[in-house]
Amino acid sequence: MDIYAENILDHSRHPRQKVPIAKPSIAHTENNPSCGDTLSLELKIEKGKIADAGWNGSGCALSQAGTSILLENIAGMKVEDAATLSPKTMRDLLGVPLTTRRLQCGFLPLLTLRNALRKRRKEIPLTWAELLEEDSH
Amino acid sequence: MERFCIQEKSLAEREHKAPQKSLSAWYAGTLMALPISAIRAQFPILNRTEKLIYLDTAASAQKPEVVLRAMDTFSRSGYGNVHRGMHPLAERATDAYEGARNAVRRFIGAAHADEIIFQKNCTEAINLVAKSWARKNLKRGDTVALSLLEHHSNIVPWLQLKEEIGISVAWIDIDDEGNVKMKELDSILAGGNVRLVSVTGQSNVLGTRPPLREIIVKAHAAGALVCIDAAQLAGHHPIDVQKLDCDFLTFTGHKPYGPTGIGVLYARRALLREMPPFLGGGMMIREVKRDGFSAADSPQKFEAGTPPIVEAVGLHAAIDWLTQYPWKDIEEHEAHLLKVAAETLATVPGLRILGHFGTILDFQNNESTNQRINESSGCLSFIINNIHPHDLTALLGQEGFCLRAGHHCTQPLHERLGIPASTRLSVGIYNTEEEIRSIGPAIARAIKRLTA
């Protein structure tokens, strides 16, 4: 099985929630420094849960599909759970093997989500090195 | 992903195809074009059973057996630290390292060995110019002019200097084909405070080769020095710094079939004499006291610490290997490959080639097309509607095709072209027409997979 599995191709061709949302609580943008993927995320947080999420961005099928899949799965999630969502969970959501060169494509949605929530708590952003170190454990 | 069983052909088997000594002797007397099969046989990585079509030489070149063997042999029998010690290995190593310096001097036509400074790579060499020459000689309001073709290594050091001391960075625009707009260079120079023009000898995205001699004449007339980033040019065309009359020129070892870890700065003797050291440490000093130091002369002044000794030996071997082939044959071979690439890619629906090669189908085999093809070298880049370069190159990679995707360290160029990323196909001396033609169907398969 390679990364261009049906679910990835489907989500990249028909990305869910790729729209702005009304009155976002927080907005954050990240990009993949190895190449040209960018992601802007908007989250609406109500009563400690993710009430709505929207995004925009351009990039490879994996990063676009990953964002679409991730946002479907965090709907209604408690903020503290979303803030600590792990690389392992992201891998499970993608359901395809990630080679070294595609790690940043696959984890871009995760990094953007976690840094959006860190920004909301006025914490310093997570770096790629820190995220990839979490992944290796 | 399928894994092939990988086996190396034995060295003897490969040597039988391309006996080193007699090949050079035989070849030297012929008028034939490059012996491509014999050349390919000399590259171990291209002779594995694994299918590899390597079209990423602009990122880095593969190494021929003689380069690998030279470094290995030196490490086994001649290795020691250089310029230190009086023992036999110190002698051998120093001779090898300085011998490499002289080989580089001849390779680029420099007059003096002390005008050749070894660094880690081309990026470090450009940084040396920025942080030594420019930081000392430029002040707030002075201008450095760059073209929009430039690689980040020839952009960021100047932007850093802008942050540090307030120099201005002026941009020479390009047209939609990638040609540097010479009239814009003229008006920037007419502004009166340009101290340096720093341009590429060959674009790593479009393959465009700016008219260096013309740029140098104009810059000098306006009182500006010129730095040439020859990272892509070296290994594809001959370089003669005295004929060019440039003030600085930089390149790296790993693109002209040498090892990583070594780069070159060429600079005029008079400039180097006045430039302050870059990195400080051992070797670059004359005297060190508790309260101060004095610097050595060039080239040692700019080579602090233990240098890349083994890599210098490798670069020397690469230069010797490459220069056995007439430049005209190399240039014709690579120009032909790029023409075939443009023709092959032009058949893919929704694919647009950037730069010169994008216009190839507008003209059919006439003089002006051929001339214009020759203005670009080394690579071409393209985009395909609704297909991201990452996905394309990942799928091509599954079939063994090695191409590069992204912005290729040229974000300002991509912004000028109005695209977030592109796919680059680049050629080296070892590529064949068959390899290039086979990529057409592979791209079609990838597109089908991604859009089905």
What's a quick, concise take on this entry?
Chain A has 137 residues and is of the alpha+beta class. Helices cover 45% and strands 20% of the residues of chain A.
Give me the number of helical elements of chain A.
6
Stretches of chain B where pLDDT is under 50 for at least 5 consecutive residues are 1-31
State mean pLDDT of chain A (0 to 100 scale): 94
Helix content of chain B: 40-55%
Distance between the termini of chain B: 20 Å
As a percent range, the share of strand residues of chain A is: 15-25%
Largest sheet of chain B: 7 strands, mixed
Oligomer kind:
heterodimer
Per CATH, the architecture of the largest domain in chain B is 3-Layer(aba) Sandwich
Shape of chain A: globular
Mean pLDDT of chain B: 91
CATH architecture of chain A: Alpha-Beta Complex
Give the % helix of chain A. Answer: 40-55%
Topology:
The complex is a heterodimer of chains A (137) and B (452).
Chain A: H1 6-13, E1 26-32, E2 37-46, E3 49-58, H2 61-74, H3 79-83, H4 87-94, H5 103-120, H6 128-136
Antiparallel strand pairs in A: 1-2, 2-3
Chain B: H1 11-17, H2 20-28, H3 36-40, E1 53-54, H4 65-77, H5 88-107, E2 116-119, H6 122-137, E3 143-147, H7 156-165, E4 168-172, H8 182-190, E5 194-200, H9 212-221, E6 225-229, H10 241-244, E7 248-252, E8 263-267, H11 269-274, E9 285-289, E10 292-295, H12 309-322, H13 327-345, E11 351-353, H14 367-373, E12 379-384, H15 389-398, E13 401-402, E14 404-406, H16 411-417, E15 422-426, H17 433-437, H18 439-451
Parallel strand pairs in B: 1-13, 3-4, 3-5, 5-6, 6-7
Antiparallel strand pairs in B: 2-8, 7-8, 9-10, 11-12, 12-15, 14-15
Helix pairs in contact in B: 4-12, 5-12, 6-7, 15-18
